[in-house]
Amino acid sequence: MQLQLPARQSGCSARRRGHVARSFGLRPAHGQFMKASPVRRVVVQVATATAEQVEVKQAGSFDFNQYMVDRATLVNKALDEAVPQKYPDTLYESMRYSLLAGGKRVRPALCLAACELVGGDVRAALPAACAMEMVHTMSLIHDDLPSMDNDDFRRGRPTNHKVFGEDIAILSGDALLTFAFEHIARATHGVSADRVLRVIIELGRASGAEGLVAGQVVDIQSEDKAVGLDVLKYIHVHKTAALLEASVVCGAILGGADEATVEKLRKYSLNIGLAFQVIDDILDVTATTEQLGKTAAKDLAVNKTTYPKLLGLEKSKEVADQLIQEAIQQLDGFDKAKAAPLVALAKYIGYRQN
After folding, report:
1. Which residue of 162, 185, 258, 278 is 20 to 30 Å from 305, comparing CA positions?
2. Spatial separation of the C-alpha atoms in residues 274 and 234, rounded to whole Å
3. Cα 174 to Cα 29: distance, rounded to the nearest angstrom
4. Cα–Cα distance measured from residue 190 to residue 203, given in angstroms and rounded to the nearest whole number
């Protein structure tokens, strides 16, 4: 599927149009702090979809569910160690409350899988994989704020600002964002400084004014307005796909991939990133709050333009399916066993139930 995105005012290259995002709390807010105990328990949430759709076992050798459990366990342990409970207690409790709240760890899994695909050592990409989850968690904390999407539930429990107040939620999100870059710089070993710098640049673009923030701004400005497909694609590509793109691209860079391989995987990630948000739009209409772990039908409540609203449910499903197929095509030519995780992750994204 050829993406036709609106022209960028910044004059940035077409390559960078494939960036996505989640959201930012841009101004201070105050709320009542409710004491929460330090979050020490690491929860592993397994990505779920039907076995037929994801092809959980490929050629009897690749078990997708077990792969995701193993990767989530690895990442959760690393996150728990990277962000320990310490003073100021409230700040770190808030950071850990959301960072260690479970989740499928799709972005870290993509980062690690891309690194291994190109022959890299997973240990080289683990700090970046954790950083992707830190930025993603920041985006969820800020996205849920009353000044943004105003949501009360995330991952099946009260959102961060409902527990710690808006002021602490904003600050803990800020802390996770900045620490993500510090963690990459401090904890990445066995990789050239040039490649680490490229990773920091990629993540900076994905999480800032060329990615997450840009998508969130246009999303906010488009509420309760009739917008076309080009604007909707812009929002999705920047607000959601950008961090998924950075996850894959950074993993490939840290694994030692050449530029041609990086760009091939960039195309893969752009397609799965857009498909991810199309499916999100569909699930907002078809799934329950219990299934999603967050409030369902939020888009409808604020009269937000979505793929189902513009194209209908069936056409939206066709769009997502085409994007997933085109993503998988980018993996042609790679070793099939090494590509199996990225193939399965693409199918999971396209057929997920939550």
Report:
1. 162
2. 10
3. 13
4. 19
Q: What is the pLDDT of residues 120-161, one digit of tens each?
A: 999 999 999 999 999 999 999 999 999 998 899 998 899 999
- Please count the other Cβ atoms lying within 10 Å of the Cβ belonging to residue 77: 13
Angle between helix 212-222 and 242-254 (nearest 10): 170
Q: Which of 165, 99, 186, 111 is nearest to 138 (CA)?
A: 99
Give the domains, in start order, of the chain with CATH numbers.
76-101+110-351 (1.10.600.10)
Residue type at 204? G
Provide the pLDDT for residue 286.
80
Average pLDDT (325-339) is 97
Separation of alpha carbons 21 and 209, rounded Å: 10
Six-digit token pair at 262? 């990086």
For residue 177, the surrounding DSSP H or E stretch is helix 166-187
Dihedral, CA of residue 177, residue 181, residue 187 and residue 191, to nearest 10? 140
| Beta-ladder partners of 58 | 62
Instruction: In whole angstroms, give the CA distance from residue 271 to residue 265.
Output: 10
Between the alpha carbon of residue 330 and those of residues 130, 231, 272, the distances in Å are 25, 26, 11
94 with 168: CB under 8 angstroms? yes
Residue 57's SS3 state is strand
Torsion of CA 238, 244, 245, 251, to 10 degrees: 150
In this structure, are residues 211 and 205 in contact, taking their beta carbons and an 8 Å threshold? yes
Bigger pLDDT: 123 vs 299: 123
Residue with tokens 């092809």: 55
pTM of the model: 0.82
